[in-house]
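tool_log.txt
---
The assistant was asked to compare two proteins side by side. It first ran the structure predictor on the initial sequence, then on the second. Raw inputs and outputs are pasted verbatim so the downstream comparison step can read them without reformatting.
(1)
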Amino acid sequence: MARKMFPSVPSAENGAFWAACEAGTLMVPKCKSCGKSHWYPRALCPHCFSDQVELVASAGTGVIYSFSHMPRAPEPYTVAYVTVPEGVTILTNIVDCDPATLKIGQAVKLTWAKVEGGPQVWCYTPA
């Protein structure tokens, strides 16, 4: 079932990232010049402004940095920041769990959600 999320629009700058998402791989941008990873995907490194950015496959794991559950929304959801081994913290949703059991520092694993009118997006669920 497709989730009602804000659909992202692939562009020339982030098209490869969204194509990887559709194929089921979360990619993290990493600069070849300074060696730093960054989030969100973009053509220029925000650390050194180099255009030598490559996409590196995420391990598919992470830990919850922060989260908030929205129980009064028409369709309740949990939004979170998840820190991944690639060195960035990603804004995402936590799905398929009881929000009352979530804790900061909890291990999570990558999963995917189809979005109405857009490409599938990364979400996380407790590991």
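(2)
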Amino acid sequence: MKKFITFLVVILINATTFAQKDELKAAQKALDGNNFTEALSSLKKAEPLIANAKMKYKTQYYFLLGKANYANGTLPDNFMAATSAFNKVIDLEKNTSKKYTTEASEIYNTLIQKISSIAIADFKKGAEYSKNKDTSKKSLEYFIKAGKSFEKVFVISPKDTAFLQNAGLAFYYGNDYENSLVNYKKLLDLGYTGKSTTYEATSMVNGSKQIFASKEDMDKQVGLKLVKDPKVIVKESQRGEIIKMIAKNYIALKDNEKALEYIKQAQKDTPNDYGLLVDEANVYYAMGDNVKFKEKLEEAVKINPSDPTLFYNIGVMKMDLNDNEGAIESYKKAIKLKPDYAEAYNNIGAAILKKAEPIIEEMNQNLSNFDKYDALQAKQFDVYREALPYYEKAYEFDSSNISIVRTLLGIYENLEMSEKQKALQEVYQGMK
């Protein structure tokens, strides 16, 4: 009886082994025919049998699972599953023969490049859509997609820490401040600085850029005339920038105390960063401390009196304080430093148009008093004429901005400038 039981167990083990082989063969055949769905189906059937399988079947299973999920790069949603499977292969073959490791590693590296390429493409789309107010929502979606993909690269390859910084920036631009904070704080916890030295030269064979592990390696290749134009590229520490971005996230989240805490930290790394002073001023403004607000802005101007962006930002803050004349003065300083500053021209126009708001309100109260209404409307149109040259300048330097085009069209219509209105209307229709 005992022998019969032993014999029965052997039969069951053999049946299980045959089932494993059959499903793995079926999966391989499906992969050979690029039928990835069928391959995944066969591997799903084999999955319950793999835990107790021989090592060679386990490694084969995970290798095929990686390839099926990778699907020759056609299934981005399955890339994480693919990398997980390839990691398992590499781990299983660590102390044995490397039957699948080489190919698994090659595809693994290709996957990292593909995911990072997807992230970069989404980030670029986000940046492109952000230029137009009408597509700002789509812009946020692309930035968040980019952030998630950058995070994936780090999960797959933890040595590529810089992708966490990319993720933090993408989430920040996507207005996902909580996730942005998570990534930037993780960088600090990891002790990441971003400081690096890269050795780069151009191949004499095909003109491609070659990266070397050391200056000695690069110099040898130069000496052998295999490469030319050697460069030593030094990237400075990013720690101050990381802390600054943490502060910016807290500003966006309206956590002013935390924002000030990290601004002070960042200023230790970059004491002459006027951008931080502007951020600090902004926080004090949000806290209602107008004395500190003005003080920090004046410090920023002293540090860098030739930066048009600084004067532009001061203009924006003054507009928020309803100091339109002060805002216009700051925007004009920005334009003096940067004559093609479209946003500054646009905002001067917007500040001027604010003068029309009380006039329009009074017009609405005098709809039946025709003489007074007409007199008020004349004043309204005078304001439009004052704003017009600034909007035309803004359009001259940023003709792709649909918001500028729409405002300019409205002014042309009100001032009955029909020829200009007609020409711009055609442009507007092409932008919609």
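---
observation on (2): Confidence is low (pLDDT under 50) at residues 1-16. The beta strands are 196-203, 209-212, 227-235.
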